[in-house]
Amino acid sequence: MADLGSCKIVKKELHVPTLEEVKNIFLKALKENFEDVEISVVDCPDLTEEPFTLSAPGLGGRMNIVEVGGPPYLLPLVNREKVYDLQSLLKDLKYGDRAFAAGAGAGPWPYINQNCEMMMNVMIDSSKIKNGTRIASVKNDDQTCLLETLKGNETRFALLANLFLCEGIPGRVLKVHVKTRVGKKDFIATMQQALAEHYVDNLVGLGGTFVIKQGKAKQHVMPDFSKTPLNTVEDLDKWLHFYEMSAPLVAVGTFVSAETDLDLRVQHFHSFSHHGEGGHYHIDTTPNDVEYLGYFNVGEVLYRVDQPPNPLQFGKD
């Protein structure tokens, strides 16, 4: 397991616009990409309830964007030593006794002795753990996707992760509700690129959750680690397993306005379901029928943990 105590952690204060300002930035971009758009600043609903079924009710309290590791620990060949633990990370960040972490990453391969995708969804309150984290893997016999929930005390992950870290308390959030995609950008890319165009000189980050209420989506699931080097985008795409998955799908993750010198991943969301499907979100495949409902909050601090020394030019899509 990676020794977080020896991992470099960079803390960066983010530019923190008001939710109202972000709403106005997103509105124009969303209207260019979706036929029906409703966006507002609201009190966060109880996200432990359906359809979200998260492990904490809200997205408020000490909001952080946390990026750990990165694709260079997976490509061209895996570094199996890069296994982290959320509980150890929280201690190193001196975060406190109450923490909710939600986001996308690689799951703890030692847990199933196989590479897997992770949809982190865990609430830790004074060492009491409510764990709704899922992992998705590829079954070797028929190449189907297998989705399962981690046991309560299993808070490890591997290689890379993009997490929204907060206290999980209710508060004001940005509500985004769109239907019928008429443009070419996916739901998150629409908002991420609007951020990038507006905040040229400031780093802004958001995290949260969205549900695809209707329609289907293109998602991938990593199979077990490749035994041959994956040196190109073509190699990577041949190795990954792509699926068309059906709503409802609940996604968690983060997006930021720019990569910067911290080699950040500008968007990363993974989804899970209650019907056995889950993976890395790319885009909906039924634009005429799709419906998204999301709740997001603005990060105040970004933590870059164990940044790989040699960045890659692919692997972040």
UniProtKB/TrEMBL annotation:
Which Pfam families did the record assign?
DUF1907 (PF08925)
Q: What is this protein called?
A: DUF1907 domain-containing protein
Task: Cite the PANTHER family for this sequence.
Answer: ESTER HYDROLASE C11ORF54, PTD012 PROTEIN
One molecular function GO term is: zinc ion binding
InterPro entries with a match to the protein in the record: C11orf54_DUF1907
The protein's superkingdom reads: Eukaryota
**The protein's assembly and partners:** Monomer.
- Location(s) in or outside the cell: Nucleus
Keywords, sorted A to Z: Hydrolase, Metal-binding, Nucleus, Zinc
The DUF1907 domain covers 25-305
Please name the source species: Trichogramma brassicae
**CDD domains per record:** DUF1907
An example of a Gene Ontology cellular component annotation for this protein is: nucleus
- SUPFAM superfamilies named among the record's database cross-references: AF0104/ALDC/Ptd012-like (SSF117856)
